[in-house]
Amino acid sequence: MSKIGNAAVKLFNERGYLETTMDEISSAAKMSKGGIYHYFLTKSEILFFILNNFMDLLLEGLEEKLDGVEGDLEKIKFLIYRHIEYHTKYPSVSKTLLQQGHLLRSEYKTIAEKEKKYYQLVASVLSDFWGGRIEKERLTAITFTLFGMCNWIYSWYNPKGPVTAQELSEIIYQIFTRGIDQSPIFKKPKN
Amino acid sequence: MSKIGNAAVKLFNERGYLETTMDEISSAAKMSKGGIYHYFLTKSEILFFILNNFMDLLLEGLEEKLDGVEGDLEKIKFLIYRHIEYHTKYPSVSKTLLQQGHLLRSEYKTIAEKEKKYYQLVASVLSDFWGGRIEKERLTAITFTLFGMCNWIYSWYNPKGPVTAQELSEIIYQIFTRGIDQSPIFKKPKN
Questions:
Q1: Which residue from A176, A150, A162 is spatially nearest to A58, judged by alpha carbons?
Q2: Are A152 and B157 a contacting pair at CB < 8 A?
Q3: Searching chain A, which residue's CA lies closest to the CA of residue B182?
Q4: In Å, how far is A114's CA from the nearest CA of chain B?
Q5: Could you read off the pLDDT of A69-87 as tens digits, one per residue?
Q6: CA-CA distance, A149 to B124, in Å (whole number)?
Q7: pLDDT digits over B29-57, tens only?
Q8: How high is the pLDDT of residue B191?
Q9: I want to staple A156 with a disulfide (CB 3.0 to 4.6 A). Which of A21, B144, B159, B174 is the partner?
Q10: What is the pTM of this model?
Q11: Is the CB of B79 inside 8 Å of chain A's CB atoms?
């Protein structure tokens, strides 16, 4: 199944989910169409399989791991590093989720529920940073701003380029917590 | 032409660019198909028209206005407020550009060139903040992180909701320059 998923996600990214046909997936996966239909009846089942697996991976053991991290800022750091790690390790799946996930239409509901759970875990860590005393709307804006910093990498970041996933995580963590004007890693050179 | 563009962009967002037909655009714009074909021969010409206009709007007078703003942080603030203003004023166009712009395929080149120009203006303001003394790869990561914070709003922000575009701009500006741990606007309540 993952052989089909891997071939499909590559095509979804290169050609687009809607433009990709089952014939192309079958040919890319080097399997007969009958072989594919044994596992998946429709293209949307393949997309669902890929995205659902990725969300399960993101959520797996997350709460327990967070409990083991001491300190509000350290928890935020852990979340950013982990998010960037998974999204850069599986860039095609990440891009498909963020750019084309909505094309699943009604089947997207299950994915959206898992995304919501993930969002709530992150928002709750951020809320704890303010001791829970932060306006709901403000917390929403801050949480999605953090997601924006992390998720947008699908549009520009090259995992094989000069900036490692760890360096990227540190840049995002430093901006989010201290900003370019206050973080020591962005210190201006002295004249 | 803008009547067609407005009707089309609404459909592209609700139903998707690929799924939308010229018939639907004609019906939503309350124009005959002949009337539409007078202006646009294909659906991709409509999408191009919408996105190209938006990029022109974003770039119009930007360099001159930036020149009139004193101070590196003030220039960054100006860019963030302006970006959020335009993207929240035209949320459907913004979302279509960021989520479906790539569907233009080869015609996307012109849009991509204008996006690049916009990117370079922002990157150059950021570079000035470090007196030009910042590694290229680092500058790229920081610039796209800022774009991520600003662009991601297409996926969550409701211009009619409780957070105004100005409040959102200030949140993003404060996070980007001082972070949640250093900016006075995110001060933790005293126990």
A1: A150
A2: no
A3: A178
A4: 16
A5: 999 999 999 999 999 999 9
A6: 19
A7: 999 999 999 999 999 999 999 999 999 99
A8: 61
A9: B144
A10: 0.95
A11: no
Query: What is the CATH T-level fold of the domain A43-181, as seen in this structure?
Result: Tetracycline Repressor; domain 2 (1.10.357)
Mean pLDDT for chain B? 95
Residues B56/B169/A165/A116 CA torsion (nearest 10 deg): -110
The 10s digit of each residue's pLDDT in B5-14 is 999 999 999 8
Picking from A126, A147, A162, the nearest residue to B152 by CB comes out as A147
Q: Write out chain A residues lying below 8 Å of B101, CB-based.
A: none
- pLDDT per residue as tens digits for the range B93-112: 999 999 998 888 888 899 99
Q: Where are the domains of chain A?
A: 43-181
Record: contact B181-A178, CB cut-off 8 A: yes
Decide if B93 touches A, using CB distance below 8 A.
Answer: no
CATH of B47-186, one of 1.25.40.390, 1.50.10.10, 3.30.1780.10, 1.10.357.10: 1.10.357.10
Would you state the pLDDT for residue B11?
95
Integer distance in angstroms from the first to the last C-alpha of chain A? 59
| B137 min Cα distance to partner chain A (Å) | 7
Q: Is A51 on the interface with B (CB under 8 A)?
A: no
- Tell me which residue of B53, B44, B17, B54 sits closest to B104, measured CA to CA: B44
Contact A148 B144 (CB under 8 A): no
Residues 6+ positions from A14 with CB-CB distance below 8 Å? none
